[in-house]
Specification:
It contains 17 helices and 15 strands. By secondary structure, it is of the alpha+beta class. Helix 5 runs antiparallel to helix 6. The N terminus is likely disordered.
């Protein structure tokens, strides 16, 4: 029904998954050559913005300008739970869950749509954190089919037209955004599917694809935290988002933005949203830390991890020297499919770079992954770009990583010792699970794009040193 659809629809996943997720895992010309071990990513000038105005726009403005008529939405969506309300919202938005926005469309119909927080807010230990990636979202079914069923609730002709606009687009992209497992995100394939239906010059929507759509097989990505953006010189896991970040971020509107004029209005306030994102600070670790063990861990970290992930000053300080280091696929050894596949290939990169969005920014795919800053890492499980490793402890000792695993998706099921989600290792993968509901709860690292190999830098450490590094990471 409509409630489940609104909770799950992938309409806004294009936004900011920059090192945070992805507009650009792709093959084609990597822009700077792929014969390298590591190199620093240069900074780009950014338009200034006001962080307070950016927060207001983020939680109130209809940058996704199509949606579900409120008359139908209100029939089935009950009162919002107190834990789903956030401050700073106007009018009816103050009554809606944080991930939904109410507005009046161009035809005057009151609509409800998703906003960025459906993917960029998450819970840990039961607490909602804006900017934490949603590691529990479920994109394993076709939201388009659910949209068609929910449309039966809409009767008024004007409202029906608004619903049809939303439904047509969601149905068109539905086959390209289904993941194999819960908790991972289909952002790259979503972007490609949307661009395939848009005229590059006018941004007008076409029901028939204007470019060959991407493969239906989704390569998964984990949603990194927004607070990393204050240090990032480029967006996306493979550092492909260059130039003006706000212009790339506002590509979130692609589902519904049908003209350059409309895109320009949205773009005018996205520097403020970017400023808000860049202003976010990581949450402090909420449990006790053994200072002596953490001090030892800082020494080990400096010798083993600092070259790629940066330095963080004295124990507990937030000053950092972050190198924005891009590592080659051969060097880091993690699953290469995201950075080397044709999921978001040359035709989509060309579309972006030659469109309105590419006039201030550009996509330059790189054959590698950026080592992220580790501020607030305690809250950001699972790990690696595809969310294939449930804890830091497993990340630092590759032989302990489970081949098949599942978890409860309960935000209170946190393991302070291993620093990540408690999980159950399984002896079988998805193919051996007959129940569809149980199958999608299994992370199967044998599936394409879901591999958990590589990043073996902690394997040579002693168990004492690994424990100390984990304790130190709690202070970042």
């Amino acid at each position: 029904g409509i409630t489940r659809f609104m909770l799950r629809t992938p309409a806004i996943l294009v936004l900011m998954l920059g090192s945070i997720l992805g507009l650009a895992a792709c093959s084609g010309d990597p822009g700077e050559g792929d014969d390298f071990v590591s190199r620093s990513v240069p900074a780009s000038a950014q338009r200034p913005g006001n962080a307070d105005s950016g927060y207001h726009a983020l939680v109130n403005n209809p940058y996704i300008s199509c949606g579900v008529p409120y008359s139908a939405f209100s029939v089935v969506f009950g009162q919002t739970a107190p834990g789903d309300l956030i401050p700073g919202r106007d009018g009816r938005n103050a009554e809606l869950p944080y991930f939904l926005t109410d507005f009046r469309g161009s035809t005057g119909v009151e609509l409800v749509t998703n906003n960025c927080l459906i993917c960029h807010a998450g819970r840990i230990n039961g607490k909602l954190m804006i900017g934490l990636g949603n590691a529990s979202a479920n994109f394993t079914t076709d939201a388009g089919s659910e949209a068609l069923l929910a449309g039966a609730l809409v009767k008024d002709p004007l409202e029906k037209a608004e619903w049809q606009r939303w439904s047509d687009r969601t149905t068109a992209i539905g086959p390209y955004v289904q993941t194999l497992t819960r908790g991972v995100n289909p952002a790259d394939n979503l972007t490609a599917a949307l661009l395939s239906h848009r005229d590059r010059q006018s941004l007008a929507w076409s029901d028939d694809p204007l470019l060959d759509p991407p493969p239906s097989q989704v390569i998964p990505v984990d949603v990194p935290p927004w607070w990393r953006m204050s240090k990032k010189n480029a967006m996306f896991y493979n550092a492909s988002g260059r130039g003006d970040h706000a212009r790339i971020m506002m590509t979130a509107s692609t589902l519904c933005t049908d003209s350059v004029a409309e895109a320009s209005v949205i773009d005018a306030y996205f520097p403020d949203i970017r400023a808000y994102v860049a202003s976010l600070k990581p949450p402090a670790y909420p449990f006790p830390v053994d200072a002596a063990v953490a001090a030892r861990g800082q020494t080990v970290f400096s010798a083993t991890c600092q070259r790629c992930h940066g330095s963080y000053g004295q124990l507990g300080e937030k000053g950092a020297a972050y190198p924005n280091l891009l590592l080659s696929l051969k060097e880091v050894g993690t699953d290469s499919l995201l950075a080397s596949s044709s999921q978001f290939a040359g035709r989509f990169v060309d579309w972006f770079n030659q469109s309105f969005y590419g006039k201030m920014s550009r996509i330059e795919p790189q054959a590698g992954y950026v080592a992220p800053p580790l501020d607030g890492i305690w809250a950001t499980a699972p790990f690696l770009h595809n969310g294939s490793v449930p804890t830091v402890a497993a990340l630092l000792e590759s032989r302990t990583r489970p081949r098949y695993w599942t978890r409860t998706f309960d935000s209170t099921d946190f393991d302070p010792a291993a620093l990540g989600w408690r999980f159950t290792a399984l002896s079988f993968g998805q193919d051996a699970e007959p129940s569809g509901d149980k199958r999608v709860q299994i992370y199967d690292t044998t599936k394409p794009g879901y591999g958990n190999g590589g990043h073996t830098y902690g394997d040579a450490l002693s168990s004492v040193d690994r424990t100390a590094v984990i304790e130190y990471l709690k202070t970042l």
